[in-house]
TrEMBL record:
<dbReference type="Pfam" id="PF13578">
    <property type="entry name" value="Methyltransf_24"/>
</dbReference>
<protein>
    <recommendedName>
        <fullName>Class I SAM-dependent methyltransferase</fullName>
    </recommendedName>
</protein>
<dbReference type="InterPro" id="IPR029063">
    <property type="entry name" value="SAM-dependent_MTases_sf"/>
</dbReference>
Length: 261
């Protein structure tokens, strides 16, 4: 109930840039992990005021840690000005919508974190990468997320195709071309999802099935740096588009046109 309330209303009251539908995609991934027994901590680089982190924490399973990494007040290190996290606001929003159970906060530069530096950030099942937006920082953060991920875990990369931040796309491509062990499998709502190669097809097929019946969403298959991905595309909220996506409405339309004839 808390997650549903946050997904549909609460996240709008937390300053941030997460598309509402991205929280639904996160929920769908969590459903798959629960069904297949994937568990472990959640983590995010670039918490800002907690908009996506709170959604992740509301999906936290008993005993799982939650790791929040941000510069917060150390904004002199924010070289690309891609967000200005505020620790007090983050904690205020967190207390309003969830709790601090298992919470670990690391204030500082994510590129200086080595695997093992944060004990709770091992075998992570959901890892959001939304920190600095230069190609160097993105490459570093993706490598850290890769080394922190549990088998079957998912990395949620932000702004890869956002035209305002070309460095994110360049850094992501460099990660994939320079021996990255994770592969992309899903693109949608300003997020690109990654996992280990042996799990990618299963996640992709299951998510395709989950979104296949949604009226306002179309699914396309494509390729990103040589890897097969599914792409979620919102369908415009126009009656004609909705009718074309709805079997029931199409059937009604055909019956009405036959009567008119």
């Amino acid at each position: 109930m808390k997650f549903a309330a946050y997904r549909h209303l609460g996240h709008r009251r937390v300053q941030g840039y997460t598309e509402s539908s991205a929280i639904g995609l996160l929920h769908a991934v969590d459903d798959i992990q629960r069904a297949t027994g994937v568990n472990g901590p959640i983590a995010e680089i670039g918490v800002h005021h907690g908009q996506l982190f709170i959604a992740m924490k509301l999906l936290q399973q008993p005993g799982e840690a939650s790791v929040a990494i941000d510069l917060f007040e150390d904004q002199e290190a924010n070289i690309d000005k891609s967000g200005q996290g505020d620790r007090d606001r983050f904690l205020s929003h967190l207390d309003r919508w969830t709790d601090r159970d298992g919470l670990v906060i690391h204030q500082g530069d994510s590129t200086q974190i080595m695997p093992g530096d944060i004990a709770e950030m091992s075998a992570v099942r959901l890892f959001s990468v939304d920190g600095g937006h230069t190609q160097e920082i993105v490459l570093s953060d993706m490598r850290l997320a890769e080394k922190s991920l549990v088998d079957g875990g998912v990395v949620i990369a932000d702004d890869v195709f956002n035209q305002q931040w070309p460095g994110v796309c360049v850094g992501t491509v460099h990660y994939l071309e320079q021996g990255g062990a994770l592969v992309p499998f899903y693109i949608g709502y300003n997020k690109v999802l990654f996992t280990q190669p042996e799990h990618a097809d299963r996640y992709r097929r299951t998510l395709d099935a989950a979104y296949a019946g949604k009226t306002m969403t179309a699914i396309f298959e494509s390729s990103f740096v040589g890897h097969t991905v599914s792409i979620l595309v919102p369908v415009p909220k126009h009656p004609a588009h909705i009718a074309r996506r709805s079997d029931a409405l199409r059937s009604t339309y055909r019956k009405v046109t036959e009567l008119i004839k």
